[in-house]
Design goal:
Length: 196
């Protein structure tokens, strides 16, 4: 049985917590929204909308599998990437999400187009192997308000906004690859050089 060194213990204890992030939403177009719908200058911090309870990001992907008659029937797999799905659960502090739902409805009925947004997700990497901050941008997001909340006695009202984005880009990166293992730094450098 191997024991953990002090350096390994320090590195492993610096894991990311949910609070190590910030989020902003920049509406790109609000086609057809009613001029009476209250709005704010872009970009919105989530603080402008409510208290962020959770932020969930998942890649949208599927695998295609072919079983050839040659190669001994060994399966061949191919990944198909279809963007990103995000969900923000927000504690209601005012009518902001209600206004957003109204603006999305008005845009749909007045022009029939989707309201697009850019979502920027900043992640603070704690002290450790890759300390610093990453800023990811999810571009051309389609927004939907999925839940305006359930009102119950003395409980907080939670609302949910969902986003679908075709692409995510690394907008900025202040991590410290020099403090990583040489092997991990090489992998990151190789992936950074690839044009997707």
């Amino acid at each position: 049985m191997s024991t953990m060194t002090a350096a390994q213990a320090a590195q492993l204890s610096a894991f990311t917590l949910g609070k190590d992030m910030s989020l902003s939403i920049q509406v790109i177009n609000l086609l057809g929204a009613s001029s009476s719908t209250p709005s704010k200058t872009n970009p919105y911090s989530v603080d402008d909308i409510g208290i962020l309870e959770s932020w969930d990001v998942k890649p949208i992907q599927k695998m295609i599998t072919k079983i050839p008659v040659n190669y001994g029937g060994q399966p061949i797999h191919r990944q198909v990437v279809s963007g990103w799905q995000m969900s923000a659960v927000i504690t209601r502090i005012g009518p902001q999400v209600d206004y957003l739902a109204q603006a999305l409805q008005d845009a749909y009925y007045n022009q029939g187009g989707s309201v697009l947004a850019t979502v920027t997700h900043n992640i603070i990497n704690p002290t450790g192997a890759a300390s610093g901050e990453n800023s990811w941008q999810y571009q051309n997001c389609v927004m939907t308000v999925q839940d305006l909340g359930m009102y119950r006695g003395e409980e907080a009202v939670s609302q949910r906004i969902e986003f679908l984005s075709p692409v995510r880009v690394l907008a900025s990166d202040t991590t410290q690859p020099s403090s990583m293992s040489a092997e991990l730094a090489q992998i990151i450098a190789a992936l950074s050089a690839v044009n997707f």
